[in-house]
Amino acid sequence: MAEISGKNFIPDSFQGDIAGQIGLLWELIKAPLIVPLLRLSVYICLAMSIMVFMERLYMGIVIVLVKLFRKKPEKRYKWEPMTDDIEMGNEAFPMVLVQIPMFNEKEVYKISIGAACNLSWPSDRLVIQVLDDSTDYSVKDMVERECMKWSSKGINIRYQIRQSRGGYKAGALKEGLEHDYVKECEYVVIFDADFRPEPDFLRRSVPFLIHNRDIGLVQARWRFVNSNECLLTRIQEMSLDYHFRVEQEVGSATHAFFGFNGTGGIWRIEAINEAGGWKDRTTVEDMDLAVRAGLKGWKFLYLGDLQVKSELPSTFKAFRFQQHRWSCGPANLFRKMGLDIATNKKVSLYKKFYVIYSFFFVRKLIAHMFTFFFYCVVIPLTILVPEVDVPKWGAIYIPCIITMLNSVGTPRSLHLLFHWVLFENVMSFHRTKATFIGLFEAKRVNEWVVTEKLGDTLKNKSNNKAVPLRKSVSKFLGDRINLHELGFAVFLFVCGLYDFLYGKSNYFIYLFLQSITFTIVGFGYVGTIVPSR
Which terminus of the chain is more solvent-facing, meaning fewer CB atoms within 10 Å of its CB: N or C? Predict the structure, then answer.
């Protein structure tokens, strides 16, 4: 019997150098297919980079002009301080509703309830709604007891629950406005469970609504009590400070329009009703309402000096879920409302262009895609295809200027700018994926995961004796290991190594550092690690 060899099962054409065969195939398809596609990708990314650069530059110029020449809101709009009227008594104060939506907020529920109950406003002109959608009955009991405690002190506080969580936060806010006792209220202010307004919040914001009938929303700025907790919270602070100090300020000053931040703002209930009320068709019900109200002609006012303390998500898991919601929702809303905005007849053509191009297209779509595809895909691939060149102005100069413009919101964190860039590149992967999910309405388009707030969790746990952690391997991998990030880490490392050995671009320094960042995130060593009990 003839000897059987493995070579008998391999075609003759592949019995030689397999690596050589692959190399030959690569050379055959590279010139007619790979090079043109990659070159087209470079041109598209350069076009997107110019769009983002022009947007950032425009906002930078506007914010400088606003700071130098623009009058303060109290001078631009009619505003008179709220004072006690001896003749009218408390009737001089309008009825205000405070809504506090909650979902299993064990660590922070006392914070927002206590802050709302301490607002400087006549108790008979203030209604506080605690909208509790908690599924944990022990948490429900604690929240209800807290409401009863404040009620016994003479505070008009209502504890409201629903039969189901239909519509999530939007559903809770909508149902809260349907109660009979709310019909007397003219304004509604919304605070998430981790928000703690100062006592004078209403006295500083309500006068703008009283004396300016065309203003439908007054938005306060967020400040963060745990920004120094870890590097993750410092990086978030940099991004959000730019959003509030530049994006919101520019939108308010130039178009009297911006996206409602979902909390820390006060609405005219008439504006909510005229816009069609709360809708749960996307995961950004706040932005949805703001766009619809803006199209009805209502003006929005941002008050940068009116600040509300809040908490940043300090675990990477919570931050990632939040970013998915914040990226997927706007893209999905743009899909649903793009045509409505373009055909609206109540607002000017200039404002429609601002909302469609600047607010949605560049900031909510292009910015995420450009960051991910250019820095994490296209530039690394050009290392492997040296026939395609990326001009220095597009790869280095414009990105550096964009980064510096983004840093103006938080000068104290300027030394963290390099860390911020590397981490934002990693997060651009999640944001880009979420953006496509929103645009094409994929299966996770309406995924709503409440952002976890830790409050004093770590402080309390540190006071207790340590308990041995017993986790299965699968549970550990699910909580800590992020395979997509690790895959990109390997890809970038290979490209960096190839550039170091054979390339001339000297991108390997950036690629190695970006690969390390993807690796750190991939193994879950980002943010606060919360010990389990």
Answer: N
In one letter, which amino acid is 277? G
Count the residues in the chain: 533
Per-residue pLDDT tens, the chain, 533 aa: give them: 444 444 444 455 544 578 778 878 878 888 889 999 999 999 999 999 999 999 999 999 999 999 998 889 999 999 998 887 767 778 889 999 999 999 999 999 999 999 999 999 999 999 999 999 999 999 999 999 999 999 999 999 999 999 888 999 999 999 999 999 999 999 999 999 999 999 999 999 999 999 999 999 999 999 999 999 999 999 999 999 999 999 999 999 999 999 999 999 999 999 999 999 999 999 999 999 999 999 999 999 999 999 999 999 999 999 999 999 999 999 999 999 999 999 999 999 999 999 999 999 999 999 999 999 999 999 999 999 999 999 999 999 999 999 999 888 888 999 999 999 999 999 999 999 999 999 999 888 988 888 877 765 555 554 554 444 444 555 555 567 899 999 999 999 999 999 999 988 889 999 999 999 999 999 999 988 765 54
Closest C-alpha to 362, from 57, 41, 66: 57
Cα(421)–Cα(257) distance, integer angstroms: 29
Active site residues: 133, 286
- To the nearest 10 degrees (0 to 180), the angle between helices 316-343 and 417-440 is 50
In the chain, the amino acid numbered 456 is D
Helix (H, G, I), strand (E, B) or coil at 224: strand
| Beta partners for residue 161, in sequence order | 132
3-state secondary structure of 102: strand
Nearest residue to 42 (alpha-carbon basis) of 426, 372, 388? 388
Instruction: Give, in order, the Cα–Cα distances in Å from 503 to each of 33, 375, 380, 383, 386.
Output: 22, 17, 11, 7, 8
Contact 234, 413 (CB under 8 A): yes
Q: From CA 448, how far away is CA 384, in angstroms rounded?
A: 40
Return the half-sphere exposure (C-beta side, CA atoms, 13 A cut-off) of residue 305. Answer: 7
| DSSP at 527 | B
Closest CA to 264 of 208, 321, 320, 303: 303
pTM of the model: 0.90
Q: Encoding tokens for residue 347?
A: 């607002």
